[in-house]
Automatic annotation (TrEMBL):
<dbReference type="Pfam" id="PF12802">
    <property type="entry name" value="MarR_2"/>
</dbReference>
<dbReference type="InterPro" id="IPR036390">
    <property type="entry name" value="WH_DNA-bd_sf"/>
</dbReference>
<protein>
    <submittedName>
        <fullName>MarR family transcriptional regulator</fullName>
    </submittedName>
</protein>
<feature type="domain" description="HTH marR-type">
    <location>
        <begin position="1"/>
        <end position="121"/>
    </location>
</feature>
<dbReference type="InterPro" id="IPR000835">
    <property type="entry name" value="HTH_MarR-typ"/>
</dbReference>
<dbReference type="InterPro" id="IPR036388">
    <property type="entry name" value="WH-like_DNA-bd_sf"/>
</dbReference>
<dbReference type="GO" id="GO:0006950">
    <property type="term" value="P:response to stress"/>
</dbReference>
<dbReference type="GO" id="GO:0003700">
    <property type="term" value="F:DNA-binding transcription factor activity"/>
</dbReference>
<dbReference type="InterPro" id="IPR039422">
    <property type="entry name" value="MarR/SlyA-like"/>
</dbReference>
Length: 121
C-alpha cells in the first residue's frame, strides 16, 4: 500500500513545486518544505519542528536557517518563555503557502472527480 500511495504523492509534490517555481518561489527544497509545512499557526519551537519532521535538531536548525535567509520564516521571542524562540511563517512563506494550497485543492478535486467522493473521504 505504501508504494501505491508514493506515486500520487510524488505527482502532487511535483505539481506543487512546479507551481511554486512559476510563482517565483523557486528556492525551496523538498526538505525545507517538509519542515516548513509543520510550522504551527502561532509558531513552533525548533525542537517541536524537529520532532514533527522526524529530523535531528541540528538538521531542523539548518533548514530553518535556510528558510529564514530566504524570507519564508522568522524567529521571534516566545511569549511563554523568555529563553526560547519561536519559528513563525513570514510574509513570503504565507504567499508561498497560498500557491501550494491552491495546487493541493486542484489535485484533490481531480482525484475526487476520478475516484468519487466516497472513496476520497
Amino acid at each position: 500500500m505504501d508504494l501505491l500511495l508514493h506515486v500520487p504523492h510524488l505527482e502532487l509534490e511535483h505539481r506543487v513545486f512546479a507551481a511554486l517555481a512559476e510563482a517565483g518561489f523557486d528556492d525551496v527544497t523538498p526538505a525545507q518544505a517538509r519542515l516548513f509545512q509543520r510550522v504551527a499557526p502561532h509558531g513552533s519551537r525548533l525542537a517541536e519542528l524537529a520532532e514533527a519532521a522526524q529530523v535531528t535538531r541540528q538538521t531542523a536548525g539548518f533548514l530553518v536557517d535556510q528558510l529564514e535567509r530566504a524570507g519564508y520564516v522568522e524567529r521571534t521571542a516566545d511569549p511563554t518563555d523568555a529563553r526560547a524562540r519561536l519559528v513563525r511563517v513570514a510574509e513570503r512563506g504565507l504567499a508561498a503557502g497560498v500557491v501550494a494550497r491552491a495546487v493541493v485543492a486542484e489535485v484533490e478535486g481531480e482525484w475526487t472527480a476520478h475516484l468519487g467522493q466516497r472513496r476520497m473521504a
